[in-house]
């Protein structure tokens, strides 16, 4: 028998849905309809249009960009059901969530768990309002897959640390206001000698050098720290707890990279609808190419099945107290599926899917080619597929090293 919804509960949800609809009517600029949130993953330069600024400020003031985060820190303080209604109504209106970036994806949830009250009060509200850009200081030239091998050192100077070292693949580092980083505070212990701290990117001694990728963009950077002073109050958790805090943050990152988070909202139109613009159709309006039709149907079934599984896994993890090692499963599968989708888009568009520049290609077509090339990195960053396989084997399946 289907579960009956209590009338009061349904009435409350209907009233909230009407509130969201009215908010959209009052605040969402029509010229932004159909746009996506460019800040969903990596915070970029501050080149907002007046309409984009208006929309971000309106959503941030309500806390609806982070709807389930605590209200006392600038979040919406809403239930999961209310957050779902916001997603549904935004989607109907062609509106995007303008609050994103690494502060939302990774750092904010981690700070809510491990930060002290002063740190939460200082850092969470501007994240909820979309007023600050964060970057991640994790990987180093000799500490990628073996992240715990990091050597950037923070020397205790009494009331502050003095940080020296280098990070690489710092996404959005050239635009970021602040960096959450794991650094070494004790050289005698590989894991227990790591601490998690926050570094202002405009501090003297911080130098950022963008790295140009095969896609033609430069979202990744090398970041150098030379005698950078970091106040003691910027230490998150206890000294030596950085490996624990850092791993928790990675679970949030992998969940989002997988498609269980922001990536799912960036997928946009179905492949079938796109294909009908580029490929011949029959009298019934369906694609004439039966092989391509089967490929698209097979992918859409697997992708939507994955999204449902990812949502269920995330809800189960949250109910158990937060993200878990299942994020490695989601990251491995989700990134592979997103790469497969990019390949299919190239096939669907034919010659129009291979353009790099020129008037003969639309912005969407050119963007898709760059996204296809950039997507090659998704199975590497955030922990490579090989790293995820090790985590799955040991922490999910309980296998021993010799197995």
UniProtKB/TrEMBL annotation:
Signal peptide location: none
Swiss-Prot/TrEMBL keywords: FAD, Flavoprotein, Oxidoreductase
Domain Acyl-CoA dehydrogenase/oxidase C-terminal, residue spans: 240-397
Keyword Thylakoid belongs to the record: no
Annotated Acyl-CoA dehydrogenase/oxidase N-terminal domain residues: 12-131
Pfam families according to UniProt: Acyl-CoA_dh_1, Acyl-CoA_dh_M, Acyl-CoA_dh_N
A GO-annotated cellular component: plasma membrane
Protein name listed in UniProt: Acyl-CoA dehydrogenase
Organism: Qipengyuania vulgaris
């Amino acid at each position: 028998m289907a579960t009956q919804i209590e009338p009061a509960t349904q009435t409350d949800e209907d009233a909230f849905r009407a509130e969201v609809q009215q908010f959209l009517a009052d605040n969402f600029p029509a010229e932004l309809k159909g746009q996506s949130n460019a800040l969903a993953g990596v915070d970029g330069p501050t080149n907002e249009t007046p309409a984009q600024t208006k929309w971000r400020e309106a959503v941030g003031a309500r806390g609806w960009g982070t709807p389930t985060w605590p209200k006392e820190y600038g979040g919406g303080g809403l239930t999961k059901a209310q957050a779902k209604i916001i997603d549904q109504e935004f989607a109907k209106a062609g509106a995007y969530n303008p609050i994103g970036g690494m502060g939302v994806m990774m750092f904010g949830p981690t700070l809510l768990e491990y930060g002290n009250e002063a740190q939460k009060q200082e850092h969470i509200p501007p994240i909820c309002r979309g007023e600050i850009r964060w970057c991640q200081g994790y990987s180093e030239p000799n500490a990628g897959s073996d992240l715990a091998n990091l050597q950037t050192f923070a020397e205790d100077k009494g009331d502050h640390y003095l940080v020296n070292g280098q990070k690489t693949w710092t996404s959005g580092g050239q635009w970021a206001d602040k960096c959450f980083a794991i650094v070494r505070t004790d050289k005698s212990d590989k894991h227990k000698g790591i601490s998690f701290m926050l570094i202002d990117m405009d501090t003297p001694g911080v130098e950022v050098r963008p790295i140009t990728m095969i896609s033609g963009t430069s979202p990744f950077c090398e970041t150098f720290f030379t005698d950078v002073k970091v106040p003691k109050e910027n230490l998150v958790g206890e000294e030596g707890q950085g490996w624990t805090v850092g791993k928790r943050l990675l679970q949030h990152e992998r969940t989002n990279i997988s498609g269980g988070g922001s990536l799912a909202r960036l997928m946009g139109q179905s492949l079938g609808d796109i294909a009908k613009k580029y490929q011949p159709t029959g009298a019934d309006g369906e694609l004439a190419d039966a092989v391509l039709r089967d490929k698209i149907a097979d992918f859409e079934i697997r992708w939507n099945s994955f999204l449902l599984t990812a949502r269920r896994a995330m809800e189960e993890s949250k109910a158990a107290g937060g993200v878990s090692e299942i994020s490695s499963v989601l990251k491995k599968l989700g990134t592979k599926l997103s790469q497969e989708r990019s390949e299919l888009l190239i096939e669907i568009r034919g010659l129009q899917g291979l353009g790099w520049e020129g008037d003969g290609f639309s912005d969407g077509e050119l963007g898709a080619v760059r996204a296809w090339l950039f997507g090659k990195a998704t199975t590497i960053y955030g922990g490579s597929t090989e790293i995820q396989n090790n985590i799955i084997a040991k922490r999910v399946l309980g296998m021993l090293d010799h197995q």
